[in-house]
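Backbone shape codes:
***
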Amino acid sequence: PSDVRVEHLGLIDIDMRITRADGAVVEEFRGLNLELAAETAGDGVDALLTRCEMEWVTQDVRLHRARGRVRLEHPRYSFTSMHVETDSIQGRADLFMLVGDGLDSLRVEGLASSFHLNELLRAIGKDGDGPRLVASGDAVVTRDRRDVLRIEASGSGFREDAPIRGDEFIGVLRDDVLYFEHIRGQYRSAEGVVSGRVGIESDPPLLELEGDVVGVDASDPWADGQDLGWPTSDLAGRVRLQLALGDSIDLRLELDELRGEAATLPVESGRAVSTWSEARGFRLHEATVQSMGGARIHAEGTVQPDDSVELRVGAVVEEFRGLNLELAAETA
């Protein structure tokens, strides 16, 4: 018959393989549980999906829950008002696909309370773990036949266990490199707009960003959010950041062309290089500022994982030469 209506269809614990003519496995799904109602409409099928859960073995993605409306009309497939939950992604989305010989185009619009970029990359067939970046908020994800994935998102995110976040970003995945055209974000007190890239096939993936920042407070790493009465600063400058996105955090931060105010002194120029890792703590390799009054201040120091702090500061002014200060402290 031309019109078909299914009140309820249920599939329980189904394993499925999609293979080529030579028997090679293209896709494998395990433990598929599916419940829906469907009816033919025009040249396609409309369905209400009330339950879907499975393990997508070939892409290492586990779908715990999905429900929403589905429209199948080859070569166009749409999934609207979808509520989706995987191991690391929770959200609501509308998904549109155009399928010819392969996936010609993909567009996803949605709102996520938890969104891990590496799981999305696995879902579209990228090998390896990919960058462990997490975000939440509004997002639009598109992919075209040139195998280019574009992500536009706002909200918060990047790395949940590092003091870095991105509130708004545009990323383009091309040839296993994710290029960030624009990121508006924050590292501790510093805020700014940067661009950069991350190679998802490197081990671990390395995020590299460069741009301009404002609101840099040099006391941030030492105080770690506490009011210790240390001199503060309000600086602006050029930033270069490298962040290894493996199982543990490894970060390098370079600040150049610094200007503003530090310890009540007007800063004409300055530079700082620091690193931070979970295993070794924070290290200030070098920091030098030149004030408009002729004073030159330099510093270096460490914050160990056990919270012990060591900071060495030296200053040269026109009236006094070779003034050196050494400070050692332990955070409360």
